[in-house]
Amino acid sequence: MDLFWLGGEGPQDIPTWAHVYLVTTLKVPRESLTGLRSVQKIGFWDGKWVSFIRIYDPRTSDEALQIRDFTSLDQHPELVLYEGYWEKGSDRVFLQRGKAAPKFQPE
User: Fold this and answer.
1) Of 89 and 69, more confident
2) Within 10 A of 63 (CB to CB), how many other CB atoms are there?
3) Labelling 36: which of 49, 99, 101, 103 has CA 20 to 30 A away?
4) Residue 94: per-residue pLDDT
5) Phi, psi for 7 (deg, rounded to 5)
6) Strand, helix or coil at 67?
């Protein structure tokens, strides 16, 4: 397994590719994504160029308000709602629920 990453960005809105995956594949209610933030970093996973992402709710605690980049959540994995990656060449998306993710009942 190759794992390498570069840089990182500050908190942003959830990107469209992640939003679509959360709603259509993980069946997360669209309204529950309001106010959530994401942090990303670019890197390689298994030899492929990917964008890693972590999604969290900045309203949950003082620690959540202090998140500045992707690695900030290394110290607080309990804040991660969803995490995964997007393969840039193939547009393949993989996201999974984190420790803080609520359980939703199917409609």
Assistant:
1) 69
2) 15
3) 49
4) 95
5) 55, -150
6) coil
pLDDT band at 3, cuts 50/70/90? very low
Please report, rounded to a whole number, the percentage of residues in the chain having pLDDT higher than 70: 88
Looking at the 3D structure of the chain, how many domains does it have? 1
Question: Does 24 fall in a domain?
Answer: yes
Reduced 3-state DSSP string for 23-59: HHCCCCCHHHHCCCEEEEEEEEECCEEEEEEEEECCC
Single out the residue of 47, 52, 49, 41 nearest to residue 2, CA to CA.
47
- Other beta carbons within 10 angstroms of residue 58's beta carbon come to 15
Residue 107 belongs to a domain: no
Alpha carbon separation from 46 to 53, 57, 64, 83 (Å, rounded): 16, 29, 30, 17
User: Which residues constitute the domain of residue 56?
Assistant: 3-97
CB–CB of 58/76 below 8 Å? no
Give the residue-averaged pLDDT of 92-103: 88
Element of type H or E holding 97? strand 93-97
